[in-house]
Amino acid sequence: MSNMLGSQISFTDYETTSSELLSRRSNCGKVATSMGGSAWSPLNEDVHDLLECPVCMNLMYPPIYQCPNGHTLCSSCKTKLENLCPTCRHELGDIRCLVLEKVAESLELPCRFQLLGCRGIFPYYSKLKHEKNCKHRPYACPYAGADCSFTGDIPRLVMHLRDDHNVDMHDGCTFNHRYVKSNPRDVENATWMLTIFNCFGRQFCLHFEAFLLEMAPVYMAFLRFMGNEEEARQFSYSLEVGGNGRRLIWQGIPRSIRDSHRKVRDSQDGLIIPRILALSFSGGNGQELKLKVAGRIWKNSDIEAGYFS
């Protein structure tokens, strides 16, 4: 759905005299007057209904369309409804509701994530862009082993992972985690794992999985931070795996769970272990994977203060 006033979609500046649209215009004038100042006034229910698409229930952005009877809807729903008005079933055509589009320019609204902590007030046409990157927006579930649509703040996510996904929870900033698989050559079906660590009063997700990297089977371990990108940069971590007199060490900054699991994996931002080396670490005859991944999480401010060498 376009949010550009300069849309190239052709339209007819349709003038309607229906009582419904005249009433809407009257309401629009009141809104523009009451909302034109720098201080935000809460939208009343009538105004909210005026700007809300009757189909998807989202706020409408240009181009906003209307039928000849004055019923409005957003451009995305217009396409889905095969150009028929959802209210009166009249053919829509390309009639723009210029009144609503103009009124929207004068509005200033709070972020939709106000209840989650955002205190910003934004012009109507800037609000959507802000909300896409608002640091208070809900987080998606970081559990990549299932198609999970759950979203929420960090405390709710932690409870969700524990109760709905049965994720292991551990306390501490150092760890030794073992990964065992009886058929390590079956990479495509190798079980990936997620463990949550509570450290410095925050939560970190340790991922471990197997996949094909340019047709070569590999294992990968990486850490994600349950918070935003700015907070994640306050921490660092190290991972180490080895055996038979050999070892691999990785050090990096945990990625925020704002970055999807797939995005982090595809960027190779973590400890990558070729399967042949992983089997060497495991010992035996190469028929079973037995890896121990050791790790540590620390605050970068502690390093700068000289608390760690």
Description:
- With 309 residues, this protein is an alpha+beta fold.
- It is built from ten helices and 16 strands.
- The chain has helices spanning 19-35, 45-51, 75-80, 98-105, 124-133, 154-164, 229-232, 261-266, 275-282, 300-304; strands at residues 64-66, 72-74, 108-110, 121-123, 139-140, 151-152, 168-171, 174-181, 193-199, 202-213, 216-225, 235-243, 246-252, 255-256, 271-274, 289-299.
- Strands 7, 9, 10, 11, 14 and 15 form a six-stranded mixed β-sheet that branches.
- A hairpin with a 2-residue loop joins strand 9 and strand 10 (202-213).
- The chain starts with 18 loop residues before the first helix and ends in a 5-residue tail after the last helix.
- The relative contact order is 0.10.
- The model is unreliable at 1-40 (pLDDT under 50).
Could you provide a short overview of the structure?
By secondary structure, the protein is an alpha+beta fold. Helix content is 27%, strand content 29%. It has ten helices and 16 strands.
Identify the notable features of this structure and list them briefly.
4-stranded antiparallel beta sheet, 309 residues, elongated, single chain, 6-stranded mixed beta sheet, alpha+beta
Low-pLDDT ranges = 1-40
Helix amount: 25-40%
- Separation of termini? 53 Å
Number of strands: 16
User: Number of helix segments?
Assistant: 10
**What Rg is obtained from the alpha carbons, in whole angstroms?**
27 Å
Give the overall form.
Answer: elongated
What number is the mean pLDDT?
80
What percent strand?
A: 25-35%
Q: State the order of secondary-structure elements, H for helix, E for strand.
A: HHEEHHEEHEEHEEEEEHEEEHEHEH
Helix and strand composition category: alpha+beta
The largest sheet is:
6 strands, mixed
